């Protein structure tokens, strides 16, 4: 296998690990599953023989939430070590991550009130921006925009882009530039961009949109619903 092929496979396995981590964090948030238990369950699913997951009631619920998730790979191709590092990192830094994300969400929306999948997407992404400096900031942002697109058809990918762009300027100013001042914000709709493959080495191919073009409120989140508790599972 050539070095370029190896790098491509590594990116694919990490993309799958990110998707799996968001799903695992969702399970921990909704069902209160223990961290080590969910890592074990997802690892078993990753290595299961064809049909084994469907036969095991404990694993069936861990299949991808939507079988039409574009080109994001299923957990069977995930980098298990990276997957576990994401989960443990989010849990360890949650008291830092949640206030940061909460402050950046669109007007009137707080972290405990948004859809749980979106909440876990932002948590995992910010962990990478804070600690995984081996991955370029723009590559991190693009990866989690793609995950948001896998689960949502509305404004959520733009919310992810805007929140992460701002937080990248806080944690990775040497890569993406300093934090923007409020007076420099310009509301505009981003021009469509041609999709290219994300490159973890350089961050090339990012589909990041204009972070200032955020919706006023996030659709689909119902304050006071059962998903509004903000339960972390930690």
Overview of the molecule:
This protein is mainly α.
SSE layout and pairings?
Elements: H1 3-31, H2 35-46, H3 52-55, H4 57-60, H5 80-92, H6 94-104, H7 116-131, H8 137-151, H9 156-171, H10 173-176
Key terms for this structure?
234 residues; mainly alpha; 10 helices; globular
Distance between the termini: 41 Å
Return Rg in Å: 17 Å
Secondary structure class reads mainly alpha
Determine the fraction of residues in helical runs and give it as a percent range.
Answer: 40-55%
Q: Uncertain segments of ≥5 residues (pLDDT<50)?
A: 47-73, 182-198, 212-234
Shape: globular
- For the residues shown, what is the average pLDDT? 73
Number of strands: 0
Short summary:
With 234 residues, the chain is mostly helical.
């Amino acid at each position: 296998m050539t070095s370029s092929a190896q790098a491509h496979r590594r990116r694919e396995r990490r993309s799958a690990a990110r998707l799996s981590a968001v799903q695992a964090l969702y399970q921990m948030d909704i069902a209160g599953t223990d961290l080590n238990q969910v890592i074990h369950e997802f690892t078993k699913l990753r290595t299961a023989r064809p049909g084994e997951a469907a036969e095991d009631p404990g694993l069936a619920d861990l299949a991808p939430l939507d079988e039409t998730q574009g080109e994001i790979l299923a957990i069977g191709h995930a980098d298990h070590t990276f997957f576990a590092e994401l989960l443990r990192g989010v849990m360890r830094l949650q008291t830092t991550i949640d206030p940061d994300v909460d402050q950046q969400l669109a007007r009137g929306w707080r972290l405990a009130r948004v859809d749980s999948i979106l909440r876990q997407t932002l948590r995992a992404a910010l962990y990478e921006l804070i600690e995984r400096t081996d991955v370029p900031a723009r590559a991190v942002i693009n990866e989690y925009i793609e995950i948001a697109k896998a689960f949502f058809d509305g404004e959520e990918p733009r919310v992810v882009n805007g929140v992460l762009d701002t937080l990248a300027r806080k944690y990775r100013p040497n890569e993406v530039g300093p934090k923007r001042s409020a007076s420099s914000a310009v509301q505009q709709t981003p021009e469509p961009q041609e999709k290219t493959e994300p490159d973890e080495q350089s961050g090339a191919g990012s589909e990041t949109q204009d972070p200032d073009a955020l919706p006023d409120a996030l659709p689909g989140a119902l304050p006071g619903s059962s998903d509004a508790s903000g339960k972390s599972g930690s």
